[in-house]
Amino acid sequence: MEHADASSTALGLSVPVFDGAYHKWLLTGEELAHIAELLNVDSSAIIKDSNIMNRERAACKSCGKFSGLDDLVHNALALGIHTPKFILNVLQNGPQNQSPGHEIQCSRCGEMFDGPFMWMGRHFHW
User: Fold this and answer.
1) Phi, psi at residue 34, to the nearest 5°?
2) What CA–CA distance (Å, rounded) separates 20 from 54?
3) What angle do CA 71, 119, 24 make, to 5 degrees?
4) pTM recorded for the entire structure
5) Band (78; pLDDT cuts 50, 70, 90)
6) CA–CA dist 78, 118 (Å, integer)
7) Bridge-based pairing state of the strands 50-53 and 22-26
8) Which residues pair with 66 in a beta bridge?
9) Hey, which bits of the chain come out as E strands?
10) DSSP annotation of 55
11) What is the DSSP letter of 117?
């Protein structure tokens, strides 16, 4: 496992914000490349560099990958919840509505991450 004993905050992958009530997930180069591949676009089309979530990133119990924006994109596409065009618009212009909390699956190995994740909506500066 990649990061079995370290938190995403300690590794610089997320930053507590709003007095620690939420976490800003910083988009890594690996996530950016994966999202671009999933959406079939050049990575320069994705101008987002972070997103505000209800919790710190979680480490996958199976492969050690930390939950990320690429997992949210992968899940939305795999389940047919959103189209690539819709997702790219959100990554360029921000979320238009509050997203409900949901479970996400690791896009690397398919294991479910523990607990619900919620992308905090447009009323948060992202």
Assistant:
1) -65, -45
2) 10
3) 90
4) 0.87
5) very high
6) 18
7) antiparallel
8) 59
9) 14-17, 22-26, 50-53
10) S
11) B
Taking residue 125's Cβ as centre, other Cβ atoms within 10 Å add up to 8
Nearest 10 degrees: CA dihedral of 17, 37, 112, 120? 30
C-alpha distances out from residue 64 to 58, 72, 94, 115, 119, Å: 9, 17, 28, 16, 21
Other residues' Cβ atoms within 10 Å of the Cβ of residue 3 = 16
Cα angle for residues 92, 94, 99 (degrees, 5° grid): 135
66 in Cβ contact with 31 (< 8 Å): no
The tokens describing 15, both together, are 């930053």
Query: What tokens were used for 72?
Result: 């949210």
- Count how many residues are written for the chain: 126
Helix H or strand E encompassing 35: helix 29-39
Over residues 19-50, the pLDDT tens digits come to 888 999 999 999 999 999 999 999 999 988 89
